[in-house]
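re: ur question from the group chat, yeah i did fold both. here u go
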Amino acid sequence: RGDTIRSDGTKVMLATLKNNNLSPRVWCISSAGTGDSYSQMSLPGRLLVRTVLRSVIQDHDVQEQAIRASGLPYTILRPTGLTNNPAKHNVTVTGDAKLATSQISRADVAQYLVSQLDRDDVLNQAVCITGA
């Protein structure tokens, strides 16, 4: 409760990049339910975000705001509930559509991120990623 480790660490990283005149693309794994993605969630998901995960999501919000304000190129991935299941190689990435499922494996998130490293499909965007 009240932990700001994500936003504090992100602010330090962004300041370090700027102080050293570096402008790499910033990749952030945030959370579904953060910012405008709240409306994409199911009712049970929204209730979870408003209650149990409230302080965690607030820290993600501050983190995302800092990234956007930095002026650095960025991509923010907002996965739904993370699992340790094997990759299914079937994900849905959306900026505004309702989320079809409430879970995705960490392996699928990692594979998607790696597949986008040299692409600009989601440059300067925050998108949700979930299992398909």
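okk and heres the other one u asked abt
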Amino acid sequence: MWRYYDTVKTLAEALALLAEYGEQARVVAGGTDILLELERRVRPQVEVLVDITRVPDLDEITLDAEGRVHLGPLVTHNQCVASDLIRRCARPLAQACWEVGAPQIRNRATVVGNLVTASPANDSITALMALRAVVTLRSCRGERSVPLREFYTGVRRTVMAPDELMTDIAFPAMRANERGIFIKLGLRKAQAISLVNVAVILQVEETETGPMAHDARLALGAVAPTIIRAEEAERLLEGRWLDEATLDQVAELAAQVVRPIDDVRAPAEYRREMARVLSRRALAAIRSGDTRGWLPDDPVMLWGDRRGGSAEAPSAAGRGGAARESAIVTAVNGRQYTVTGADSKTLLRLLREDLQLTGTKEGCAEGECGACTVLLDGAAVMSCLVPAPRAHEAKIITVEGLAVNGQLHPIQQAFVEAGAVQCGYCTPGLLMSGAKLLEERRRPSEWEVQQAIAGNLCRCTGYYKILDAFERAGHRYAGPDA
């Protein structure tokens, strides 16, 4: 899929490689999109992948003196979900990030990567479009800022030049008199591509007659070649009370601007109608003041006790640039391994083929089933979507490493007692998600268990025994008096 894998330590190194290789280079951070695109040949095969995950300070979420929120290129979806700043100043973005994939995906996938992939169904783009985001593109030739509305030219097409790297996403923090919400319609509650999504942000003036709208922004996704703004609907809202008639008119205008297609997930007319329904639902939520949506107050992250932070970042020593085809030195289950010739593999293949740790299973190789879940630097990830060189100087735990001194982990013991296994193929991934959940929640609720295993599919059990096993494990892990 790629010839060389370069892990850089500075942005200057990354930009130099992009300048050298142009269209034959791709930047990798989370890798959850680019690996699939290369496998499916959605993107042309590349000469070099440029890994920026070891560049310091790129995973920061900050608020500047002018009241603008900034996201670095390594900020993940789960970081946005957990960030108090994002929840307070850009709640629609936190809601959109929560709707992306499953915990293992959100621990790796970056918001910048979501924008650059440029799918019209990508959730975070819609929220950022309503937030009036501006992106910064940098190359060896200089730097430029592009409003997100001008960034997209078509399906999976942007104005980025081959030698450019997106280094910042910036947008004004929502003010005290602004309310916003993101709503998504998918075919299931998790791991679902949007059929339609909508983000609405309004300034709300409370009057004796009722709430009045100003400065409206209504963005829609998965209904056109790019994410779009319903400008006529926005104009209609200006200075209008949010009464039933106004909500109906605005929703109708939103439905008229969309240009959906028929595909395997939904017909065009259904999407058009749902654009109307979701737009009205969002406006009604803003009118009522209840914009909580589906975002939990204390979401399951599957990154252990690092609440609000990113995963541990290993150093880049010994790799990148001149060190091409060098050994991958990694610690797996507390044991150090040195692997050569695996630079073009995924972490899943490295574990199974080079280290003979076959407990980690390949179910879909697309990040859909969770059978390949492992812990990478303390966070649960889908190993089929992680490039093998990312394991260099990292700490990895697989299902073989859960038992300690011959003693099963509480989640393993609970699976045995509850009979939570049938064919067993999905079990390693479920166990890894369960082990990480128990670090975050000593005695998780059923809802928290459901969040934790949203990315783990089981084709046999119906999940009842699995839920029973999680409950048993919680009691054992926390103790009877916890």
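fwiw on the second one: Residues 307-312 have pLDDT under 50 and may be disordered. DSSP finds 16 helices and 19 strands in the chain. idk if thats what u expected
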